Amino acid sequence: MAGITNAAYRRLCLEQARAQGGDSLFVCEMITSRGLVEGDATTRQMLVFDEQESVRSVQLYGTDPAYVGKATEILCAEYGVAHVDLNFGCPVPKVTRKGGGAALPWKRTLLGEILEAAVTAATPYDVPVTMKTRKGIDEDHLTYLDAGRIAEEAGVAAIALHGRTAIQSYSGTADWDAISRLVEHVDIPVLGNGDIWEAADAVRMVEQTGADGVVVGRGCLGRPWLFRDLAAAFLGEASTRSGRVPGLPRLGEVAAMMRRHADLLCQHMGEERGCKEFRKHVSWYLKGFPVGGDLRRDLALVTTLAELGDLLAGLDPAAEFPVSELGHPRGRQGSPRKRVALPEGWLEDVDGTGCVAREDASETTGG
Ligand SMILES: Cc1cc2nc3c(=O)[nH]c(=O)nc-3n(C[C@H](O)[C@H](O)[C@H](O)COP(=O)(O)O)c2cc1C
User: Fold this and answer.
1) DSSP states of 244-271 as a string?
2) Which of 28, 90, 266, 275 is the catalytic position?
3) Is residue 237 pLDDT above 90, yes or no?
C-alpha cells in the first residue's frame, strides 16, 4: 500500500507473522517503471528493504511494455528482488485518465504485451511475476476474466483480484463471487482481495471462493498483529483452518506495537522523518480505545522518540480492545465515483495494439 508498506512497516508485520510461526509476502510500496528506468531519486529511495526481509517483493506500476520490461530487469538484477507484482488496480482519476491502473486491462493486447515484457525480463532470474487488478472499470465494462486468461497466457504466476470496479473506488463491499468466478476461469493461482478485516474473514474468503490465498489491504492499518492472527488461523489447530486467533491486544500491547513501529521507522529514515511518518498511523492504532482528545492530538504531532515514550506512558495499558471495532472497515472508504476518468475514446476498442498509455514517472497513488 502506497504510503504505508515501507521497509519499517513490512518488518513489523513480518515480526508479527513470524511470532506465530507463519510468514507472508509483504510487498514494497508501488513504484513506477519509468521512474525506476530513468533513475528518479524518489523511486530509488523507496526501494529499501529490511535485513529481515528474506523475500524482496515489489509492485510496479506501468503502462508501457518497454519500461515495464526494463524496470523488471533492474529490480531482478540490481535489487535482488524475488517477486514482481504489476498494478492494474489503481482507480485514481489522474491514473485512469491516462489509461493506467484499473483502466488498462480494457486494452487486452496492451495488457498482454506488458505482462509478457515483465515475464520475459524476470524469467532468466527465476523471479515470478504476478498481477493485481480490479473487476473492471464499471459493471458494464468488466475486465477481470479476460485479464486472468491473458495473464495465464503470458506466464504470470498468480493473479490477485480486488472485488470492486474502478468506479466503486473503495466504497461498498467487495464482490467475492467475482473471485470465485475467476478461480473457475483460470488455472493459475488466484488471490482474493477486498474486505479482509479480521483473520476469520480471510479464512471465510478462501473457503467461500476457492482462492489460493488472500491479499490484505486496509485491514492491517494500525493492526500489524493481523498477520499474527492470520498465521494462527491458517496454520493453527492441526490441519483444520479454525479462524481462531490469539487474544485481542489490550492498549498496553498496542502501545508497545506503536513504539516498535516508530523505532523501526526512525531506524530506517532517521528520527525526524520517522516520527513524522509515524503520525498518520496513530489514529488507526487508537481507533475505538478510550483515549482523550488531547493525548490523541499530541501523539499525532509527535516529533521525537523520547516524546513518544512519554505520551505512550499516558495510555491505560489495561484498556481492553474495543470489540465494537472488529469486522469494520478501516482507512479509505468514500463513495462511488460518478464516472471513471478515461482517455478520449478509450472504451471504443478493446484491443489497444500499438497503443501506449502515457506513463508518469512519479505516480505514487497505489491501488
Ligand atoms: C492507502 C492505500 C494505499 C494503497 N496502495 C496500493 C498500491 O500501491 N497498490 C495496490 O495494488 N493496491 C493499493 N491499495 C489497495 C489495497 O491493496 C486493496 O486492494 C484495497 O484496499 C482493497 O482491499 P481491502 O478492502 O482489504 O482494503 C491501497 C489502498 C489504500 C487504502
Assistant:
1) --PPPPPHHHHHHHHHHHHHHHHHHH-H
2) 90
3) no
